[in-house]
TrEMBL record, chains A, D:
PANTHER family: CARBAMOYL DEHYDRATASE HYPE, HYDROGENASE ISOENZYMES FORMATION PROTEIN HYPE
Organism listed in the record: Aminipila luticellarii
Protein name according to UniProt: Hydrogenase expression/formation protein HypE
Database matches in Gene3D superfamilies: PurM-like C-terminal domain, PurM-like, N-terminal domain
Gene Ontology BP terms: protein maturation
Family matches, as InterPro entries: HypE, PurM-like_C_dom, PurM-like_C_sf, PurM-like_N, PurM-like_N_sf
Every PurM-like N-terminal domain range: 35-144
Family: Belongs to the HypE family.
Domain PurM-like C-terminal: 156-303
A Pfam family hit: AIRS_C
Automatic annotation (TrEMBL), chains B, E:
Name listed for the protein in its UniProt record: Hydrogenase formation protein HypD
GO terms classed as biological process: protein maturation
Keywords assigned: Iron, Metal-binding
Record-linked NCBIfam families: hypD
Pfam families linked: HypD
Taxonomic lineage of the native organism: Bacteria, Bacillati, Bacillota, Clostridia, Peptostreptococcales
Organism: Aminipila luticellarii
Entry-linked InterPro entries: Hyd_form_HypD (IPR002780), HypD_1 (IPR042243), HypD_2_sf (IPR042244)
From TrEMBL, chains C, F:
Protein name: HypC/HybG/HupF family hydrogenase formation chaperone
Entry similarity comment: Belongs to the HupF/HypC family.
GO BP, one annotated term: protein maturation
Taxonomic lineage of the native organism: Bacteria, Bacillati, Bacillota, Clostridia, Peptostreptococcales
GO molecular function ontology, one term from the record: carbon dioxide binding
Classification via Pfam families: HupF_HypC
Length: 325, 350, 79, 325, 350, 79
C-alpha cells in the first residue's frame, strides 16, 4: 500500500499507520499509553542525544535505515559512558512510500532496539510530498555509568584504539548505488557492549567517539581540536579489509574519510592500552580492534604513511560522493 | 638489488643544488601527498604539480555553460564527481544543483547511455573533460549514441592533450629540471611521445606508475640522470605503458576527434592542445566551441605561477588566508588534485 | 582524474566484461583492448584501457633492479 | 547563501553551518561541548517526547517553523505535568535552502526556547536533495512536577476546559497559502505557564492535551477512547473568533478539525472547574479559556449544536487540505 | 411571529405518517448533519440526501481519466480538494499523487490561469465538476484562456444540471413527498425552475438557504404544505434567489456550453442532464466525451437506493462494516457531502 | 460543493473586487454580477455569483414571519 499525503493529516489514517506499524513493532507499556510525552523510570545522571537519518538506498547489505537510526543514537549515548535506555523515533515519510517498506524498517528497529536494550517510548509521523523516501530522527537518553568521559579529555601520551575495520558502512552503501558486487556489509552495530566491557574492566577511558559521517579523519580532528593536542596515527596499523581497499581503488575513495556505523575510537592512558585492546578484541564487535596512534603536543592530525613518510590528515572539504548516512 | 631504504636515504640526504621536478599528472600529485613523499626526500628536491589536473585547467566559461544547461527546463548535466565543486564565473555545479539545476554524478561516461534511454523527456549533456586517457571512452560513447540512435544525449567537451602542454612548459619555463610523465595518459599515447621532448629540451622524462614506490623510483631515476647530466625518456611503468601506446584507443580518438587550439585556465591558449569532435559529429556536441574565454584570472591568484612551478602554493599571498578549500580563489585550491588544495590539507606538518 | 585500477577479467559478454578487483566485481567495457578471461586489465572510468603485462609487485622489483644497475653503471663510470 | 548538498557531508562545511548558525543561536555550555551526547543535570521523574515539523509555508503570521518546533515539544512535556528542561533539534535541510532563512529560524528558536525556559543541548544537521524546505525534529525532556496526569484518567462528571480560541494556527497558515488577507496570527505559544499556574493552585488535573494536528475533535476522541468514556461538548461554548469564523466560511473549514499550536484542554474535577477556568483566564495565553463540556458514561464525542440539536464529532478522515503543522 | 422553539417543538412531536423529504444539495446534507437537525425533528420526518453531491454522482471513468492525465509526463491536474479522495476504477487522485502523479488543489478555477501562465512547460487540466452554480465560472475561465491565449490549460468536464435529475426522481421515485431545492444552484437558475415540477408531480419544492434556521424553516414549510395537501414552490432564500436567476451567469453558460445526456454514478444515464463545451470550444476540452461508462456499481453497494431515498445508509449491509470512510465501497461513503459518510460520522448518537 | 459565502465589496479593480468576509479580504471575480462598492455578494469558488438583497438575520426574521402567517392562514382555514 502506498502512503499518500492523507496519512499525515493527524486523523484516522495517521492513527492507523501508527497502530498497525509502529505500536505493533515498538510495543511497550510506555509508548502504548500514547500520552503527549512518555514518563521514564531512570536514575542518576543522564546522557541525551539526537540524530537524523537520510540514507539512500534505505536498504543495504548489513542493515537498513531503521537499524542505523537505532545504532547511531545508541552509540552516541554509549560514547559518553552511558547505558542507553530510551529512544524517541520521528518519521518523516515522503508520499509514495510503501507501507510494507515502513513496516520492514520498523521491524528492524524493533530487533535492533532489543539487542541494544532500549525502548522506543515516544514517536511522531509526518507525511510530506516526494518520492517515497523515509527520513528518521531518533533521540535517546541513557544513564551515565562513568562521569568525565569527554572529547576534551585527551592527554599527551594517551593511546588511541580503533575498534575495527574502516569504511565498511560507506562501501556497502556505495556498492549498492554504483552496482558493484562484493560481500561488503555495513558494520552498523550497537557499541554499548564494548563500552561496558571497558568500564567493567576499570579502563580509565579519557574519550570515546563513534566513527560515522566524515570518517576517522573527522573524528581525530575533533579530538585534536577539543583536547588541544596533536593526534599522531600510523597508516600501517589502520585496519581495512582487502575487499574495502579494492572497492576504494575503483572509486578513488579514502577509508580515512569513509563512514562506519559500528566502529569507535577510545583514548586510554598508555599503561592500559594493551589491556583495553584485548578487551575490545574479545568483544564480538571489536574483533579487528587495533592501536592506531597516540596523543602528543601540538595541533592537527598527522600520519606516518606505509612508506614511512609523514603527512597531515585534514577534515573533509565539500562532498566526495553522494551522502551515505 | 637496491632497496627502498637506500633510495630514500640518498634522496633525503641530498644537499646539492635545488632540483625542480614537475609531476604533470594530478593523480601523481595526489599520490605524492598521500604517501608523504615530500617528507621522505630532501627539501632541495622540489616536486612541482604541473597542469595535469583537468579540473584545474578547465576554463570557467566551460563550467558556466554546464551550469546554464543544468538550469534549463528538461535538461540534465551528467558529470564525474570531481567537476561538481569547480566554480565557473558565477556558480559551481554543486551550487547550480542547490538553485534547482539538474546534475547527476556518474562513474563512467557509458552510464549515460542507460540514463538517457530510460528518460527520453530529458536532454542529457555529459561534461566530457579529461586527457587522452578518457577521450577514447567518449569515442565509444559517441559510437553507442549513433548505434542506439539516442537523441537526448550530447557531450560538452573540454578535452586536453598533454604533449602540447609539455612543449609549452619546456619552451617557456626554463626552471624545470625534469618531468615525471603521466602514467595513464601514457598507456594511451605511448612513451615514445616523450623521447623527442627529452632530447630536444635536454630534460629527463620518466614515465611512472602511481604507487609510492613508483614515484620514489622515478624521482631517484631523475636524480641519477641529473647527476650524470643525462636527459633520457625512461619508462618505469612497463606493466602498462608501451612505446606506441594503445593503438585501438588511438584509432577511436582519431575517428571522432581532431586537434584544436585550446585555452588552459591559468596558462592561456596553447596551440593544438585539445581534442574536439570532428565536424561530421557536431550533432552530438552541446556547443563546445567557445568564442572567447572571458578569463581574467581571479584577483591576486597566482595559479599560473603555481602550475608552472615558479612558486609553491604557500608563497601565494592569498594561500590559507582569503583562499581556502571552502572559499577557493583559484581552481587549484578546489580540485582534489590541485596543488594549492593539497598543500592546504598538508599545512601544519613539521 | 586519470585514476585507474587493475582488475582481473572473470567473464566476458560481448564488449562487456565482469572484472574482479580484490573481490569487488564490476562491469567494464572492453572495446579498447584485446582481452580474454584471466587477463589483468587497467580500468578507467568504466573502461579497460590496457591489458597489464606484469603485476604491481613484480614491476616494483623490476624497478629496483633497474635502478641498482644504473647506480652500478654510474659508479663504475665514476671510476 | 544557498545550502548545497556538500553542507551535509559531515566535513568542514557541515561544521561551519553548525558553528555559524546553530551554536551561535543555541549557545549554552552543554551544547557547546559538542560531545556525542549531552550530559544533563536533572532530578526526579522525567517526561520525554518528540515531534517533527514540516509546515509550508515555513514563515507565517505569528511565527515560523522554528517557533513551532520549540512550542510543540515544550507543550507535549507540559501536558504531562512536567517542567520542560532540555531539547534536542534535528534539522533536515533540502538543498537550495537559504542559510539566511535557517539563521532566522534558529534565531526564533533561541527566543522561543528562552521564553519556555529550555536549553537545546544536542542537535543534528542533514542535507537532502529538494527545493529548499527545512524540516525540524525536536525531542524534549522535562521534570515531572505532578505524577498521574494521563489521558486515561478522566472520570464521569469531570469538566473539560479549553484554554482559548480554536483554529488560529491553521487559519494563519492557510491564509498565507490561499492569499487571503486578515489579521489572524498563529497562536503558537508555550503552555507551561498555564500548567504551572494550575498546579500551583492545587488543581487536581486529570488530563491535559495540547490541541494540535487533527484539532479539538481528534483530541476529544483520544480522551474518549483512552479514558473509555463519552465526551459531551456544547457548540455555543466553543471559543472561535469572528475572523476565523469568516475564514472558515470562505474555505468550508470546520474549527473543530483545525490545528492550534498554543491551546490545550484540561480535564478537571467538577468542583474545581470554575477555579481552574479563572486561573486559565488570568494567564496571558488563556485569556479566552472556556468550559466546553464534560465527561459522561459511554463512548465517542457528542456535541449539542447552536440550534440545540445533537450530533457526534468523529475524528478526521483523510486530509481536508494541505498539511499545516 | 413564530419562534424557532415553536417550530422545533411541532416538528419533534409529529407522530403522523412517515414523511420523506429529499434535500437535493450536498451542502444541505452537510448542514443538516452539522446542525444536528435530525435530532431536532421527529423520526417520522425522514431527511433523504439526493443526488446533489457532484462528487458522489461523477462517474468513475471520469476520475480514471484525471488519474491518467496526472500521471502523464509534464501534465498536471488542477482540482478542488473535494475530488481528491474519490476513487476511480483503480485510483483516487490522492493515490495518483502518491505514485508520482501531479495534482494541485486550488480554491477557484480562475487560479488556473495564473498557474498555467507561470509554467508554460506543463499541460494543465482543470477537473471541472459541479452544478449550475459552478458552470458559469468555467465559462469565465474559457473566456480568459481565449483572451490570454493560454495554450497549456484545458478543462475536463463533468457538469451536471439539477432539473433533469429532479424530473427523473419525480418520475421514478414515488416515495419522496417533497423536496428542499438547492440554494446556490437556484441563485443561478432561479426558482421558477421548480414551479412546473411542483405542479406536475404535485410535490412541495422549497428553496432554502444553508443556516440551520433556513433548513428547519424549509422543513416546517413542507410540513405545513403536506398537512394542507398543498404542493407549491416556495422560495425561502429570498436574499439570494430570484424567480429568473442570474441572467448574466446563464448567458455565460449558454455561450460556452450545451446540454448533453450524461451518466450519474449510482443512477445511470439521464437525458440532457449535463453541460458540455460546445463543439466550437472543443480545443479547450481535455476529452470529456466518454464513449462508455464501465460502471458496474461496486459489489453490494446500495448507493442507488440511498441516493434515491429508498433506504437509509445504515440499512446497507456493508455500512460501517466493509464500507467505512477509509475503505469506502461506494462514493457516498467517501465524499464530505455523501449521505453514507455523514451517517457514518454520526454513528453512536443515541 | 456549492458552498458559498456572503462578503462585502470594499474595492473594485476592473473585473476583480476585494471582498471582506468578517475581516478576511480576498480577491473575487465579479464578471457574473452587477456590483458596486458596499454591496454584499455571494462568493462561490472565487466568483461573486449574486448580489444579496438582505442580510442573513433579516432573512431569518422574514422566514419566521412568513411561516407565522401561513400557520395562521392554515389554522383559520381549519375553522
Ligand atoms: S592559493 Fe588560491 S589564490 Fe593562491 S594560487 Fe592557489 S588557488 Fe590561486
Ligand atoms: S454504505 Fe457504502 S456500500 Fe453501502 S450504499 Fe453507502 S457507499 Fe454504498
Ligand atoms: Mg500533543
Ligand atoms: Mg547525535
Ligand atoms: Mg551520531
Ligand atoms: Mg506528534
Ligand atoms: Mg599496455
Ligand atoms: Mg557520534
Ligand atoms: Mg510529541
Ligand atoms: Mg505534539
Ligand atoms: Mg549527528
Ligand atoms: Mg439574486
Amino acid at each position: 500500500m502506498k502512503i499518500d499525503i492523507s496519512y499525515g493529516s493527524g486523523g484516522k489514517q495517521t492513527s492507523n499507520l501508527i497502530n498497525d506499524i509502529f505500536l505493533k513493532n515498538f510495543d511497550n507499556e510506555v509508548l502504548n499509553r500514547l500520552e503527549d510525552a512518555a514518563v521514564l523510570d531512570i536514575k542518576g545522571r543522564i546522557a541525551y542525544t539526537t540524530d537524523s537519518f537520510v540514507v539512500t538506498p534505505m536498504f543495504f547489505k548489513g542493515g537498513n535505515i531503521g537499524k542505523l537510526a537505532i545504532c547511531g543514537t545508541v552509540n552516541d549515548l554509549s560514547m559518553m559512558g552511558a547505558e542507553p535506555r530510551y529512544l524517541t523515533a520521528g518519521f518523516i515519510i515522503e508520499a509514495g512510500a510503501d507501507s510494507e517498506v515502513i513496516e520492514q524498517i520498523a521491524h528492524t528497529m524493533k530487533i535492533a532496539a532489543e539487542e541494544a536494550g532500549v525502548k522506543i517510548v515516544a514517536g511522531d509521523t509526518k507525511v510530506i510530498e516526494g518520492n517515497g523516501n523515509v527520513y528518521i530522527n531518533t533521540s535517546g537518553v541513557g544513564e551515565i555509568l562513568k562521569e568525565g568521559i569527554s572529547i576534551q579529555n585527551c592527554r599527551e601520551q594517551d593511546v588511541i584504539l580503533l575498534s575495527g575495520n574502516l569504511g565498511e558502512h560507506h562501501a556497502a552503501i556505495m556498492s549498492e548505488r554504483m552496482g558493484i558486487e562484493n560481500n561488503i556489509a555495513s558494520d552498523c552495530a550497537p557499541l554499548f557492549s564494548i563500552v561496558s566491557d571497558l568500564l567493567e574492566n576499570k579502563i580509565n577511558i579519557r574519550c570515546m567517539r563513534d566513527v560515522t559521517r566524515g570518517g576517522l579523519a573527522t573524528v581525530l580532528n575533533e579530538v585534536s581540536e577539543s583536547s588541544k593536542c596533536r593526534v599522531e596515527i600510523e597508516e600501517p596499523s589502520l585496519p581495512v579489509s582487502d575487499e574495502v581497499k579494492g572497492f576504494c581503488n575503483i572509486l578513488g575513495l579514502d577509508p580515512l574519510y569513509m563512514a562506519n556505523e559500528g566502529k569507535m575510537i577510545a583514548v586510554v592512558p598508555p599503561e592500559q592500552a594493551e589491556k583495553a585492546l584485548e578487551i575490545m578484541r574479545n568483544n564480538h564487535y571489536g574483533a579487528n580492534a587495533a592501536i592506531i596512534g597516540r596523543i602528543t603536543k601540538g595541533t592537527g592530525v598527522s600520519m606516518t604513511t606505509v612508506l614511512g613518510g609523514n603527512r597531515m590528515v585534514d577534515i573533509l572539504y565539500g562532498e566526495g560522493l553522494p551522502r551515505i548516512c | 638489488m637496491i632497496t627502498l631504504q637506500q633510495i630514500t636515504r640518498e634522496l633525503k640526504e641530498y644537499d646539492g643544488r635545488e632540483i625542480k621536478i614537475m609531476e604533470v599528472c594530478g593523480t601523481h600529485t595526489s599520490s605524492i601527498f598521500k604517501n608523504g613523499i615530500r617528507s621522505l626526500i630532501s627539501p632541495k628536491i622540489k616536486l612541482i604539480s604541473g597542469p595535469g589536473c583537468p579540473v584545474c585547467v578547465t576554463p570557467s566559461v566551460y563550467v558556466d555553460k554546464l551550469v546554464d544547461i543544468s538550469l534549463k527546463e528538461n535538461h540534465c548535466v551528467l558529470t564525474f564527481g570531481d567537476m561538481m565543486k569547480v566554480k565557473g564565473n558565477e556558480h559551481s555545479l554543486t551550487e547550480a544543483a542547490a538553485i534547482g539545476g539538474k546534475v547527476k554524478v556518474v562513474y563512467s561516461p557509458l552510464d549515460a547511455v542507460k540514463i538517457a534511454t530510460e528518460d527520453a523527456n530529458t536532454q542529457y549533456v555529459f561534461a566530457a573533460v579529461g586527457f587522452e586517457t578518457t577521450t577514447p571512452i567518449y569515442g565509444i560513447l559517441i559510437d553507442e549514441i549513433i548505434k542506439k540512435q539516442i537523441s537526448n544525449l550530447k557531450i560538452l567537451t573540454s578535452l586536453k592533450t598533454i604533449t602540447p602542454a609539455l612543449t609549452y612548459i619546456c619552451e617557456n619555463e626554463k626552471n624545470i629540471d625534469a618531468f615525471i610523465a603521466p602514467g595513464h595518459v601514457s598507456v594511451i599515447i605511448g612513451c615514445d611521445a616523450y623521447k623527442e621532448l627529452a632530447e630536444k629540451y635536454h630534460k629527463p622524462f620518466v614515465v611512472a606508475g602511481f604507487e609510492g614506490e613508483h614515484i620514489l623510483a622515478a624521482v631517484y631515476e631523475i636524480f641519477l640522470q641529473l647527476k650524470e647530466n643525462k636527459a633520457c625518456m625512461k619508462n618505469m611503468y612497463i606493466s602498462a605503458v608501451s612505446d606506441k601506446g594503445n593503438m585501438q584507443a588511438l584509432s577511436v580518438i582519431n575517428q571522432y576527434f581532431e586537434p584544436k587550439d585550446d585555452f588552459w585556465r591559468g596558462i592561456g591558449v596553447i596551440e593544438k592542445s585539445s581534442l574536439r569532435l570532428k565536424p561530421e559529429y557536431f550533432q552530438y556536441d552541446a556547443g563546445s566551441d567557445f568564442d572567447e574565454y572571458k578569463e581574467s584570472p581571479p584577483k591576486g591568484c597566482k595559479c599560473k605561477e603555481v602550475i608552472l612551478g615558479r612558486i609553491s602554493p604557500a608563497e601565494c599571498p592569498l594561500f590559507a588566508k582569503q583562499c581556502t578549500p571552502l572559499s577557493a580563489v583559484g581552481p587549484c585550491m578546489v580540485s582534489a588534485e590541485g596543488a594549492c588544495g593539497i598543500w592546504y590539507k598538508n599545512r601544519g606538518r613539521e | 582524474m586519470c585514476v585507474a585500477v587493475p582488475g582481473k577479467i572473470v567473464e566476458i559478454n560481448g564488449s562487456t566484461a565482469k572484472v574482479d578487483v580484490m573481490n569487488n566485481t564490476c562491469d567494464v567495457n572492453i572495446k579498447l583492448v584485446q582481452a580474454k578471461i584471466g587477463d589483468y586489465v587497467l580500468i578507467h572510468a568504466g573502461c579497460a584501457i590496457d591489458v597489464l603485462s606484469k603485476d604491481s609487485a613484480e614491476e616494483i622489483l623490476w624497478m629496483f633492479k633497474e635502478l641498482e644497475e644504473e647506480v652500478h653503471d654510474n659508479s663504475s663510470a665514476d671510476h
